[in-house]
Amino acid sequence: AAVEGFDVEDVEGAIEAAGHGPLPVLAVVGRPNVGKSTLVNRMIGRREAVVEDRPGVTRDRVTYEAEWAGRRFKVVDTGGWEQDVLGIDASVAAQAEYAIEAADAVVFVVDAKVGATDTDEAVVRLLRKAGKPVVLAANKVDGPSGEADAAYLWNLGLGEPHPVSALHGRGTGDMLDAVLEVLPNAPAQGFGTAVGGPRRIALIGRPNVGKSSLLNKVAGEERVVVNELAGTTRDPVDEMIELGGKTWKFVDTAGIRKRVHLQQGADYYASLRTAAAVEKAEVAVVLIDASENISVQDQRIITMAVDAGRAMVIAYNKWDTLDEERRYYLEREIETELGQVTWAPRVNVSASTGRHMEKLVPAIETALAGWETRVPTGRLNAFLGELVSAHPHPVRGGKQPRILFGTQAGTKPPRFVLFASGFIEAGYRRFIERRLREEFGFEGTPIHISVRVRE
Ligand code: GDP
Ligand code: GDP
């Protein structure tokens, strides 16, 4: 494609960069204080540093985007562990388990100065069971004298220990090269691999909103025995459920059912679990307790699904308990607190009475359709042309930036690249997004718009 004032290579590069599919996921696991967060910081570079945690402060951000040797992937950091909630072995095992479940490959970090401990051995057992590719990072090898310590870690039976210093960067490049060798280009839970297979749903929401009640209600007697379905992953944490004449895969339901670790202080685990479920799913059904005020935690969970680029449905549960007054205030709260996601289909349900359960599937299907929408380039540019002439960008410094050309670079979710003759202001970008939605729908899906400006 040629665009006035742009090199063909720039245009093609921009489209390719924006059009990437879902990114593969790398989990970084290990005991506390071995240097996981330091290593993750190094991987993600300056772009979005992991915040220094004060002890006792819950971190809810657990996934980050990273790039090495021109390849992009997601990193799940399990460094935000919480002391005193569980015993150390159980804590490490729980967080490693969640992260490994969602991962396509794992970096297992061991403190080479300390050597392998019993807790490390416990993680090794988990890694063996999971069968995912593992790269062993022997951390805190700050200089050549530490290399011998690293070599001891051959004993773990995970192959070559890669001596690194997360703190100083020594050896991390070689280790990342080894990671890229085992990390697939696209997630194995991949959106391409399961063509025709069951669609994957993550049922998420803060504790007590009614996730397990809803799951029980929709599953009813319709639970499908996983083994009977050819070509499906026999992941015990996922559950096949028949709804509206189709089979759906509800991912990560074990966490909903078992309610493990949901004691005080377990917010971090809940975040990790939610992030893992969202990564594995195509569509997130976010459950909100309509009888209570919409909380910051509800908003964070919604943000996780949006940032991950998943299709989304919002279900307001416990509708049976709402009186007129609460209904009035709920609508006001939705307007003020959830104005950013007005595009998400909404259902008002009751897991207790079964109210509107039949509306769930159509909402999910709408969201998935929006998520997969592709707008032909001709139609898009006809629309953009009309839009720009009817509502030109405001003049700035005597110049009027123009959108010259646009194309949809990818789907799941829809990603657009616009080429412009000058800087396009945030307000105008939002205006374009709004009009794109009015014109083409995109119900139930975030959309990404990146703008390239002619030099
Ligand atoms: P996490 O709990 O596994 O996430 O560990 P952190 O990344 O928070 O690191 C724990 C401590 O080890 C911090 O004080 C780090 O500065 C230190 N540390 C991390 N990596 C290295 C390293 O490569 N060399 C040295 N000497 N110290 C490190
Ligand atoms: P989870 O922590 O999100 O899995 O929530 P649960 O399914 O365990 O539900 C938490 C509490 O809310 C339980 O006491 C449920 O009986 C109750 N609950 C769940 N859904 C509804 C509903 O639709 N209406 C009413 N009245 N209560 C509900």
Automatic annotation (TrEMBL):
Binding site for GTP 1: 30-37, 77-81, 139-142
MF terms (GO), sorted A to Z: GTP binding; ribosome binding
Record keywords: GTP-binding, Nucleotide-binding, Repeat, Ribosome biogenesis
UniProt feature coiled coil, ranges: none
One Pfam family from the record: MMR_HSR1
Nucleotide-binding recorded as keyword: yes
UniProt-annotated binding residues for GTP 2: 205-212, 252-256, 317-320
Location of the EngA-type G domain: 24-187, 199-372
SMART domains the UniProt entry points to: AAA
GO biological process, one term: ribosome biogenesis
Role this protein plays: GTPase that plays an essential role in the late steps of ribosome biogenesis.
Oligomeric and partner information: Associates with the 50S ribosomal subunit.
Family membership noted in the UniProt record: Belongs to the TRAFAC class TrmE-Era-EngA-EngB-Septin-like GTPase superfamily. EngA (Der) GTPase family.
Protein name: GTPase Der
Organism: Streptomyces yokosukanensis
Gene: der
